[in-house]
Amino acid sequence: MNPADIISKLTDRQPSILGYEQFRKHAVLLPLIEKNNETHILFEVRSMKLRSQPGDICFPGGKIDKADSTPRQCAIRETTEELGITETNIKDVSPLDYIVSDFGRIIFPFAGRITNPELIKPNISEVGEVFTVPLPYFLSTKPDRYNVQVKVVPEADFPFDLIVGGKNYNWRHYQVDELFYQYNGKVIWGLTAKILNHFISLLNE
């Protein structure tokens, strides 16, 4: 196969993320509601009965299923299931920047409005409680920032004899910034805080 034939196979190819099929894909909705004539952001507290991250604060969302036509549809579906509302109560769903996680996940965040928030009836099997925070609080409050050091730890049977430097190979270490917002005793951190901070940065542009 000559170079021209090789290049012809790549012509008009649309690039994607390498290994995209193996990534676990999730979608979440950052919900805006009107409360006391003021815009609030709604959060969930994950049920303590859940195996994954019980008690953590998050946005409505979950794993993208084969039945979901798009990440946006997944975010809407998960929100209806977790908050006990219908799709007609979810308006103006717009995409935010998606996140490619080093832990093999892609998260597709969206922002949207929830109308008639008095109709919300959280699914108790997934949601311990819901609460809201006035948007102006986040517009005027910078999150606390802490660093987490991530190190490479090869398995016992790693073939050190195949790499230059062997067991003394200079692995690249890096750090992850973790953001924390605190409001009335509630701690918002992790991916939820990163999505929230991104959303606020868009509003402040």
Automatic annotation (TrEMBL):
Pfam families: NUDIX. It comes from the Bacteria. Residues 23-157 form the Nudix hydrolase domain. Its cofactor is Mn(2+); Mg(2+). Keywords: Hydrolase, Magnesium, Manganese, Metal-binding. One of its GO terms (molecular function) is coenzyme A diphosphatase activity. CDD domains: NUDIX_CoAse_Nudt7. This is Coenzyme A pyrophosphatase. It comes from Lentibacillus populi.
